[in-house]
Amino acid sequence: MIQQIDHIGIAVKDLEKASRYYEESLGLELHGTEVVESQKVKTAFFEAGDVHIELLEATSPDSPIAKFIEKKGEGIHHIAFRTDDINGQLGKAKDSGVALIHEVPIDGAGEKLVAFLHPKSTYGVLTELCMSK
Description:
- The protein has about 130 residues and is of the alpha+beta class.
- The chain has helices at about 15-25, 65-70, 85-95; strands at about 1-10, 30-35, 40-50, 50-60, 75-85, 105-110, 110-115, 125-130.
- An eight-stranded mixed beta sheet has the order 2-3-4-1-5-8-7-6.
- The radius of gyration is 14 Å and the shape is globular.
């Protein structure tokens, strides 16, 4: 079951520069950075109420984030929904005709399992499902 919006992923070219904006201009507190090898990104998390802001910087030119920025520029990359049953949620999405990017959850940032739904099936929004391990 979907519990809430967990975070909004924002693709950036320079994680340190973008982090300074969120800290200094918006007054949000940095809650840590992490390299996610499976996604070829470095992330930084900020809290805004019950929702996190996840900044994503590519660590490789073939990273999905690098490709996203090359095609669309910096900006909102995805919306992540927290669930307590990621496999059940993936099955529900698949059964309703949604194209899955990940049939099986993979390791994500923050000790979570994640899986993405294809934006062609989600009205143009790259949608992430996430669940704490």
